[in-house]
Design brief:
Helices cover 36% and strands 16% of the residues. The chain is an alpha/beta fold. The longest helix is centred in the first third of the chain and has 20 residues, at 111-130. The termini are far apart. Bound molecules: pyridoxal-5'-phosphate.
């Protein structure tokens, strides 16, 4: 049956409900505008944004430096496709490679595309450099992972909602428990799978799983097992990277340098989708023209905004602020009553808080009524990830409301 717009109400939420696929269950807040850490709904009510676009808004909403960079580029050129070079592309790649201490960059748009890029490049590297027999490459991943929504990526998800009904699944992945070095070591040592492992794909902190920090030494252990077995360590820093944890890269908390970073979210400054695989010449150099690409990947507008993001990170003060405010936030979270809170985890301005007897969704609804936006990850866990530009007073204000939500 078809409907005309005149039959439908013009209330935005009803239109969403009627015309948008129901692949999300949003909180009942309809945002009209936003600035810094604050968003305002269509009724003029303000909320402090403690989700920050799942860390895509690390610099807050419409940061003036990023808006200026976008505006300047809008007046020049926005899209050429990779059929031609443009004057923002080389500088963007050079500046991002330098920030990451790497040699080459392959830009895409969404996080999932960066992950797909990592998978393709690791396989090709495995066949052409490591000499793994064709079509036999294995990538080790971890239970509880979240790397995106494509058919290949959901093939190795352990979340039934993400995976069920979307098969047939892409082969070539083995999953082991997160944080379990001996399980990883066993896979790498097995005579059947071990020699075919081309990469280990790891989130330095598992975001969607509930902001789960692995045991100390885990990332360093993954690094050394990868080096020993000739497998690439690919760090998915799409959510953990670019300042969120008080480090530019979350791997740095353990002094670990992977073979490749996958970046996204905050790289686009909350304005445009920008993602990238950043690695060495030995790894990204395996690609030849025609083997991978994207019409929008590395477009001039994306590069101009991302260059400003990189400049803001390079200066170091925001990352430092994330570390300091993170300490403040975690100290406060640790004072929440243990009768109500069963777990607090995270690093920097990033926390997963699990509740003993109330669902995460219920807490988020209470928080929204109190003027704070947050989102549950799974079940009884919520994630707190404010923009890194939040002030001490704003953070304290939000923490007061988290406390109130637990007692209301
Ligand atoms: C660690 C990680 N990787 C990949 C993705 C996928 O990014 P996108 O939603 O931009 O495809 C996400 C998104 O939440 C993520 O947290």
């Amino acid at each position: 049956m078809t409907h005309t717009m005149t039959e439908a109400t013009t209330d935005p939420s009803s239109l969403t409900d009627r015309y948008s696929a129901h692949n999300y269950a949003p909180l009942p807040v309809v945002v009209a505008e936003a600035s810094g850490v604050w968003v305002t709904d269509v009724n003029g009510r303000s909320y402090l944004d403690m989700l920050a676009g799942y860390s895509a808004l690390n610099f807050g909403h419409r940061h003036p430096r990023l808006v200026d960079a976008a505006r300047r580029q809008l007046e020049r050129v926005t899209l050429v496709s990779r059929a031609f070079d443009h004057d923002q592309f080389g500088p963007f790649c050079a500046e991002l490679a330098e920030l990451a201490g790497m040699e080459m960059v392959l830009p895409m748009n969404t996080g999932a595309e960066a992950v797909e890029t990592g998978i393709k490049v690791a396989r090709k590297w495995g066949y052409t450099v490591r000499g793994v027999p064709h079509d036999e490459a294995v990538i080790v991943v971890f239970d509880g992972n979240f790397h995106g929504r494509t058919t290949t990526i959901v093939s190795f998800s352990s979340d039934p909602d993400a995976r069920e009904d979307f098969g047939p699944y892409t082969p070539g992945f083995v999953s082991v428990p997160y944080g379990d070095l001996s399980a990883l070591s066993d896979v790498l040592a097995s005579s059947d799978v071990g020699p075919r492992v081309v990469a280990v794909l790891v989130e330095p902190i598992q975001g969607e799983a509930g902001v789960v920090v692995p045991p100390p030494g885990f990332l360093a252990g993954v690094r050394s097992l990868c080096s020993l077995n000739g497998a690439l360590m690919i760090a998915d820093e799409i959510q953990s990277g670019l300042g969120r944890t008080g480090f530019t890269f979350a791997c740095s908390a353990e002094g670990v340098v992977p073979d490749a970073y996958l970046l996204g979210k905050a790289l686009g400054g909350g304005i445009v989708p920008v993602s990238a695989m950043v690695s060495s010449r030995a790894v990204l150099g395996v690609l030849r023209p025609g083997q991978h690409g994207s019409t929008f990947g590395g477009n001039p507008l994306a590069c101009a905004v991302a260059r400003e993001v990189i400049a803001m990170l390079r200066d170091g003060s925001l990352v430092q602020r994330s570390a300091e405010l993170g300490t403040r936030m975690h100290a406060r979270l640790r004072t929440l009553p243990s009768s109500a809170v069963s777990r607090v985890d995270g690093r920097g301005l990033w926390a997963g808080v699990s509740f003993a007897s109330v669902g995460g969704r219920e807490v988020c609804e209470r928080l929204a009524r109190l003027g704070v936006l947050a989102k549950e990850t799974h079940g009884n866990t919520i994630r707190l990830a404010p923009p890194l530009i939040i002030t001490d007073a704003e953070l304290d204000w939000a923490m007061d409301r988290v406390e109130a939500a637990l007692t209301s």
